[in-house]
Amino acid sequence: MRKIVFNKKFLIVVGLCLSVAGGLFIKNKVNTKASDNGIQVEHMSVTYAASEGDSEEILEEDVDETISQEVVALDKQKVEYNIGDIMNVDDNYFVPMETEVQDDVSYQVVGGIKTQKGNFVIKINSDKKISNDDVKNAIEAVQEELQ
């Protein structure tokens, strides 16, 4: 049997090549995530982003992650917020959140929808309280936008 001997320079070059290739792979993986798209619907600003996967469980995880990110950002900014009861709209659930900064109240609702083009996480922002009908209008607007 033949013995293979590697010298230190060869191992360093291979290590550098693998680390550069790994870095490029990770960079491309991160950049392929869909960016937020936004539309204006009545008094609401609506943003939506594609979910990481097509299953309902992944959509729920993406919605929960989005809500967690919002809460962490509000905590860092020391902004008071209240999370309301879950809103069930068209077989989807949405979580309402109310924030107050210097007597200015803003409202946000975060949820997920399933469309023919995949699953999407939706964030609805408004200066007025957001009703179930407002959420329905936002869902319809996003679905039209995706066609």
How far the N terminus sits from the C terminus, by CA atoms, comes to 64 Å
Radius of gyration: 22 Å
Arithmetic mean of pLDDT: 81
Oligomer: single chain
Biggest beta sheet summary? 7 strands, antiparallel
**How many DSSP H or I helices?**
3
Helix content: 40-55%
Structural notes for this entry:
This protein is α+β, with helices and mostly antiparallel strands and 147 residues long. The protein has one domain (35-146). The chain has helices spanning 8-31, 56-76, 132-146, and strands at residues 37-41, 44-50, 80-83, 87-89, 92-101, 104-115, 118-126. Strands 1, 2, 3, 4, 5, 6 and 7 form a seven-stranded antiparallel β-sheet that branches. The longest helix is centred in the first third of the chain and has 24 residues, at 8-31. 18% of the residues are buried.
What secondary-structure arrangement, pairings included, does this model have?
Blueprint: H1 8-31, E1 37-41, E2 44-50, H2 56-76, E3 80-83, E4 87-89, E5 92-101, E6 104-115, E7 118-126, H3 132-146
Antiparallel strand pairs: 1-2, 2-7, 3-5, 4-5, 5-6, 6-7
